[in-house]
From TrEMBL:
It comes from Moorella mulderi DSM 14980. InterPro entries: P-loop_NTPase. This is Uncharacterized protein.
């Protein structure tokens, strides 16, 4: 078997050891690549005659990786492509796009899994078919058994990097939980996302170490569930803990990572954090809908500038908060695991900064219609 590899540093060593017993590696590209980098990697891989290509979905930005793989598929239509999709779940937009390009061997699992063992199992199995990959595929244009007419859809995307600030009306309301959930939701939509921990209580580094999070797209970042995390205790910045915000100090890394969305976990509100939140494209305030906690909202300056995320409120309580003048409140269902919250609630909460689609209206050529009508007139 002749193999080609396009991998991230987090899984490269495990995969290399696993493939030694299955054949010869004729192309090996490892790294967190930008748009030109991932395109060049696939173009180089297409120049060698491999039987199997193993690709890590985190090796490059989702849309750019899909475009590069499309070119590879045209050049090498019969190569078996095995996709490593750590932390991804069925319905993931990036994976669905690749399935549409004929990538059916999809290896999923937690980031901390033994990827060498998973690759060994895949290579020892017969190539997968669409029937096995169908659970990952989002089919647009079908409604039940009835096929609808194809529509031309144009996405209107926010310009530049979008910053979303998440802060709590009081300690302990779930600011970090909500920031993680928002980041995971955006990553599932195929966006490049970074989460920056600017909370008063720095807990992210311990959490990342416990779950064995891999390396991120840039130095200092860790990767979970398809997005990067910059923990507050990031190496080299701990001596300044408690002074300023890490966001300002990781700006060069954020630019290098070409992130489309940056989510800031600001902790619970104070005057400084309110100012930071209002610097963002979208300010989210995590609050309780309980009447006895309404005093938390009264203390927040410029409350009308925030979108309230009410985490698991009672139905009546949520409606009462939503009646408050100039307050935009949205209900987030209770879910202990921030990565399993239904996307509909976050889509509504984040609507102002999400890509919007509009149907392109079909053009009617008046001149042609007039000419055609004229040609049908009987001659005098």
């Amino acid at each position: 078997m002749i193999l080609a590899l396009i991998l991230t540093p987090a899984r490269a060593e495990q995969v290399r050891k696993a493939v030694k017993e299955h054949g010869e590696v004729v192309f090996d590209q490892t790294g967190k690549m930008d748009s030109p980098g991932i395109r060049n990697a696939f173009q180089s891989a297409a120049r060698v005659g491999a039987d199997t290509l193993i690709v890590d979905i985190d090796a490059g930005p989702g849309p750019d990786l899909a475009a590069a793989l499309r070119g590879y598929r045209i050049a090498r239509p019969y190569v078996r492509i095995i996709l490593l999709a750590p932390g991804r779940q069925p319905g993931d937009a990036a994976v669905a796009t690749l399935v549409g390009l004929g990538v059916y061997d999809i290896i999923d699992g937690p980031v901390e899994a033994d990827w060498g063992d998973l690759v060994t199992q895949a290579l020892a199995s017969v190539p997968a078919t669409y029937a096995q990959a169908a659970r990952w595929h989002i089919i647009r244009g079908l409604s039940g058994e009835e096929q609808v007419k194809e529509k031309v859809v144009i996405e209107q995307r926010p310009m530049g990097v979008v910053t979303i600030a998440v802060t709590g009306a009081a300690p302990g309301l779930g600011c970090t939980h909500t920031a993680l959930a928002i980041s995971a939701f955006l990553a599932r939509q195929g966006h490049n996302v970074a989460l920056v921990e600017d909370s008063q209580e720095l807990v992210m580094l311990d959490y990342l170490n416990v779950i064995g999070a891999g390396d991120g797209r840039v130095e200092g970042a860790r990767r979970i569930k398809g997005f990067d995390v910059f923990p507050g205790d990031i190496t080299g910045l701990t001596e300044e803990r408690g002074t300023g915000f890490i966001f300002d100090r990781v700006l060069p890394a954020l630019r290098e990572g070409n992130y489309q969305y940056v989510v800031r976990d600001l902790g619970f509100v104070d005057s400084t954090r309110i100012r930071e939140a209002l610097r963002s494209n979208l300010a989210v305030l995590v609050a309780s809908a309980a009447r006895w906690r309404w005093g938390d909202l009264v203390k927040v300056e410029n409350l009308s500038s925030f979108r309230l995320a009410l985490v698991a409120p009672g139905g009546r309580e949520a409606k009462e908060v939503q009646k408050i003048p100039e307050v935009k409140a949205y209900v987030i269902p209770y879910q202990p695991d921030p990565f399993n919250i239904p996307g509909e609630s976050h889509a509504e909460l984040l609507q102002p900064v999400l890509p919007r689609s509009r149907q392109e209206k079909k053009l009617f050529w008046v001149r042609f219609r007039v000419a055609a009508a004229t040609s049908k007139r009987p001659s005098a």
